[in-house]
Amino acid sequence: MRAGVFAIGLAVLLSFASPAPAAAAGLTDQNGAPFTLEQLRGRWVLLAFGYTHCPDVCPTGLYTLAQTLNLLGPKADKLTAGFVSVDPERDTPAVLKDYLALFHDKLIGVTGDLAAVDELAVRHRVKYAKVQVTPDHYAMDHTASFILVSPTGEQVSRLHHGLKPEALADKLQQVMSRQ
Amino acid sequence: MLRSLTQAAALALSLGALCLTAPAFAADHVAAAKTGDLHVEQAWSRATPKSAANGAAFMTLRNAGASADALTSAVSTASKTVEIHATTMKDGVMQMRQLNQLDIPAGGAVELKPGGYHIMFIGLKAPLAAGSMVDLTLNFAKAGAVTLKLPVAAAGAPSPMAHEH
Fold first, then answer.
1. What is the structure's pLDDT at B27?
2. CA–CA gap between residue A82 and residue A94 (Å, rounded)
3. Staple A95 to which of A11, A112, B51, B132, CB 3.0 to 4.6 Å?
4. Is the Cβ pair A63, B157 closer than 8 Å?
5. Nearest alpha-carbon partner for B4 in A97, A82, A59, A105
């Protein structure tokens, strides 16, 4: 492993003042509109946390989400699947919109200022940290699991990111039909 | 769109099953090449969104020789640099790290696949489009260099078959 590789903690991460979104503090969706999870009360919400510069786990996870939505078909009518960026410095709404379009037209993207993203991550026990891979570029370590939030806003389960779409669709149907 | 993706998934599954019995059929979806005792097999890449700066490539590196070898670097005309990466999971947290080299044991093989080792294109000059090809040159410590053209599958595809629509 290269000597220059080092991890920096959340405290340091937060000290990187976000230069990009000049919009009002808080979260925004991929269209730049203000976003809160409260807007989705009454719906099931399945969230994947990640970042668009991630070439491996995040695209695979989004592919899984897209296939899962397709498998569920009309059964996904009460489900919103979304991708929350833990790298809002680079992932502007426009970047997210372009990124998600490649996977599924129903996926929503969430980004925003660092504090708001952090609040959402902490609320759902999602960990992340910025890692300088080389002097030229950084990566984000992050929790890979999918987070399922109930229509009343409770986090009901944490689903393994490596699940096949069929298995994820089955689990979602089980949970959504129970409650 | 929903229907076509479902069909694509079904087709991908059936193609995957076909490939188990007819390896030659996989030639359309993956690339292979060799240099000395080092065989590059099942090599493929994935499409990237317009905004994405990075892409990934996956393959199996098989060392038919009697001495260990290592992948030490890689280059491509498609990106500014190419790095060798390992994705690992620690307590449910995905971590991505750069490797100085990837060892390939004598008589052994190392699989690069989504969620594990991968080749990373850093600073793509243009997006990688599904159905296109991307060139990659791999440099091995003993076996030397080999260049191949990798087919580009769908974004996020878990396997090279998934780009069939």
1. 47
2. 15
3. B51
4. yes
5. A105
| Predicted pLDDT of residue B28 | 73
Residue B86: how many other CB atoms lie within 10 Å: 16
- Which 8-state DSSP code applies to residue A164? -
Whose CA is closest to A91, among A56, A140, A126, A46? A140
- Say how far apart CA B44 and CA B151 lie, in whole Å: 5
CB within 8 Å: A1 and B122:
no
Q: How far is B86 from chain A (nearest CA, A)?
A: 10
C-beta of residue A118 within 8 angstroms of C-beta of residue A10: yes
Entry pTM: 0.80
B5–A127 CB contact, under 8 Å: no
d(CA A113, CA A172): 30
User: Which of A64, A98, A145 has its CB closest to that of B51?
Assistant: A98
CA B92 to chain A, closest CA, distance in angstroms equals 6
B80 phi/psi in degrees, rounded to 5: -60, -50
Torsions phi, psi for A147 (to 5 deg): -110, 125
d(Cα B84, Cα B101) in Å, to the nearest integer?
Answer: 7
Q: Report whether B79 contacts A78 (CB < 8 A).
A: no
* Residue B50 with chain A: CB contacts under 8 Å: 98
Give the integer Cα–Cα distance in Å for A41 and A26: 18
Radius of gyration over every alpha carbon of chain A, rounded to an integer in angstroms: 16
Assembly ipTM: 0.75
Nearest to A1 by CA among B90, B105, B89, B83: B83
Position B53, amino acid: A
Select the residue of B2, B51, B89 nearest A99 (Cβ to Cβ): B51
Which residue in chain B has the smallest CA separation from A59? B156
Region B116-125: mean pLDDT is 95
Tokens of A156: 């009901």
